[in-house]
Amino acid sequence: MTLLPRPAAALLALLLSAAGGASSATSDEFLYTVQPGDSVWSLAARYLHQQHTWQDLRTNNQLRSDRLQPGQVLRIPLPWLRLTTQEARLAALRGDVMLNSGTGWTAARADTPLPPGTWLRTPVDGTATLQMQDGTRVLVRPSSELRLIPLDRAQQEAWIRAQSASSPGPAPRAGTAPVRIELLRGGLESAVQPQPDHSRFEIRTPSAVTTVRGTEFRVSADADSTRAEVVHGRVDFGNTLGEVPLETATGSRADQGLQPVAAVPLLPAPELETAPDPLSTEQVRALRWPPVAGAVAYRVQWFGDDASASLLHESVQPTAGPGVPALADGTYQLRVRAIDAIGLEGLPGARTLTLFTPPPPPPPPPPAPRTPQFSTHWLDNRIELRWAPVDPQACVQVQIAEDGAFERVVLDELTPREGLNLPAPLRPGPYHVRVRVLLADGGRSGWSEPRAFDLRSSQEPPP
């Protein structure tokens, strides 16, 4: 709830009058401190309902002149004020986030204003970030449903009365009326800007109410219970049966129909400093951090490392490891919280990590061709080699040497045929022959076992 905004000027006056007017407000009026440049005409146009004019403002304050002096205090009856309730803005979203402003559920879009009365729902794999006018940010976790609660006229006027009753000081800016969120299920993570006196950021759930004036805290709820954890600052957490003040690093739980449990220390942040960086997919799968004493599970969150810092992936893991997030290659912030036996989540451990997909391994080489089995036959003082058929795209390499180590090769020939008749020009004497298969893609078999033969000058084969 706010007065309509005015540039670079305070809207609500808490100072006593320096000239003209009374020194304190009654229960049904508000005191406004005149700022440089103010006039009865501009104030009436900016802050009053259309049925009330600058003449009403002048008459009510018994002004003898239309000119106003900075620091002068004017009385404004509360019913004259044109009041509005501040809006939130959907700063970022991921997944199929849905909105309902009273006309049915529709797909949400980033940068959409969210007036009071708006319902918001996140899917199981989606998140939303709300930005308030005062800079407060609220992360809505997956599987959550909430409503921005509007202030009715009586609540608006009660807030203004509280402002006018506070001690003198700077006038609050527009948009500092208390924000109220009704969380039906799911979880919120809030970073609340310091609130003016008598203002509270408020979250209501089915079993408790959480109010703050500036802090970093979390609230999660289901049909049976509500849990609140304070990372920094102070929170009042309670229901109709009792209230628990929560300081930094403490939390509480309120079950339906029961008063909140006394504040308990939150579990310490998991130690993530030893995690290697960068990490491949397999390294993420194998990543572990030292177990936190008292933890029964861990909430693992992966945030973008850009300016939006959106929550991209979240899971609850039963052991001290992050699981395998479905994330593309890039740089992320990993945040991990230990969860205790009553469901309270501890202080966050954080680490910026770069994930990458390792290149695929090279394909295995083609299977080596089988070493051909060959035989030798004598024919007309020539030796004939024969082997089993090989791949049509392959050829056979034949080597003949004078020694068994094939250091003195006298014939090295390639042939696509299934046999070879060795020529007569070889000198008579002992020889060794071997063969192997060569494929077109470069693959090759091993050499066959060498076979010895004795080439004679006679046409008769050796005995």
Automatic annotation (TrEMBL):
Limits of the Fibronectin type-III domain: 368-458
UniProt entry keywords in alphabetical sequence: Signal
LysM domain segment(s): 30-76
Gene3D superfamilies per the UniProt record, alphabetical: 2.60.120.1440, Immunoglobulins, LysM domain
Cleavable signal peptide: 1-24
Domain of life: Bacteria
Pfam families found in the cross-reference section: FecR, LysM
UniProt keyword Protein biosynthesis present: no
UniProt-listed InterPro entries: FecR, FN3_dom, Ig-like_fold, LysM, LysM_dom_sf
Annotated protein name in UniProt: LysM peptidoglycan-binding domain-containing protein
Species name: Sphaerotilus montanus
